[in-house]
Amino acid sequence: MTGPRQRAGSALLVALLTAFASAPAVAQADLQAIDRRMSQFSARGNYAAALVEAKKLEAAAKARYGVDHETYATVLNNVAFLHATLGQYDEAEDIFKRVLALREKNAGPDDLQVAKTLDMLSQMYVNQSRLAEAEPLMRRALAIAEKALPRTDPYVSKLLNDLAVVLEHQGKFLEAEGYYKRAIANLELIKGPNSVEVARALGNLAVTYQNLGRYEEAVELHRRALPILEKSLGRNHPDMAPQLANMAGLLQALDRYREAEGPAQARAGHHREVLRRQPSQRSPRAVRTRLRL
Question: 94 FRET partner, CA 20 to 30 A, in 126, 158, 220, 244?
């Protein structure tokens, strides 16, 4: 899972460098230097320092382009993102809404940049457990992306998966199943059936099946996902633990203890204690951790 922070940061960096290319040479060099420092601080996890640089960019973009220009909206979006990353949700929400209004005014309500702002705002709501508020924003972002992009575009698959996660967490399991299946079908086409993105989506769908009591189907999905994740990420990667815990709980609930203590532990390595501590029960509770694509 390339983290959501990394995905967003990379997208913003490209947009800013493109926007600054038309500025006068001296100003362009200054702006790009600030932009590089912001990106470097963010990559090191120093988001407070990155925010300081982002605010410098905001002031510069405001002075050069005015507050109605897309370049200013892009910079402002960056500021909101960093506030959200730092847990400064009130500030981030206000700025995201300003960016959203600006982009709707300039490009129209169905522009892809509008979808991306909706996406980032909805992810912030998810981080605050405001799922009922996140859901309609995700639905709108997905609808825009499906019109603007090919249905197999990776961003469409990402939105499908994210919406499914939010639906599943609200107990809307059957609807979540449909979105997960669409995401998996897309990812198999564009990433390949043995990609880590497919494995993560399979793991998410398996958890939905656990919650629906469809345990055998969940086991089969975990069986498919685990080897892909282990090969791609390594057996000691933290993403392996929830998958292994879910698999072990399922097998124990199905009275398949030897399987739970055998192949799963062999894969787990240092996660063996996690598997041994899984309670024996008829209705296994899925680990709530979700793997974003």
Answer: 158
Torsion, Cα 269 209 223 256, to 10 degrees, reads 70
What is the rounded distance in angstroms from the CA atom of residue 173 to the CA atom of residue 286? 13
Residue type, 63: A
HEC profile for 70-93?
HHHHHHHHHHHHHHHHCCCHHHHH
CA angle (202, 204, 210) in 5-degree steps: 100
Q: What is the per-residue pLDDT across 220-274, written as a single tens digit (0 to 9) for each?
A: 999 999 999 999 998 888 888 888 888 887 887 777 756 655 544 544 454 444 4
Residues counted in the chain = 293
Q: pLDDT tens digits, residue range 184-202?
A: 999 999 999 999 999 999 9
Taking alpha carbons only, the member of 277, 224, 223, 278 closest to residue 249 is 278
Nearest to 159 by CA among 106, 196, 120: 120
The answer to whether 117 and 103 have CB atoms below 8 angstroms apart is: yes
Among 17-21, 131-135, 150-154, the range of highest mean pLDDT: 131-135
What is the residue type of 240? M
Backbone phi, psi, residue 256, to 5°: -105, 65
DSSP 8-state secondary structure symbol assigned to residue 278: S
Lowest-confidence pick of 113-117, 129-133, 222-226, 251-255: 251-255
Helix (H, G, I), strand (E, B) or coil at 252: helix
pTM over 0.90: no
User: Encoding tokens for residue 129?
Assistant: 């457990």
Closest CA to 275 of 286, 289, 265: 265
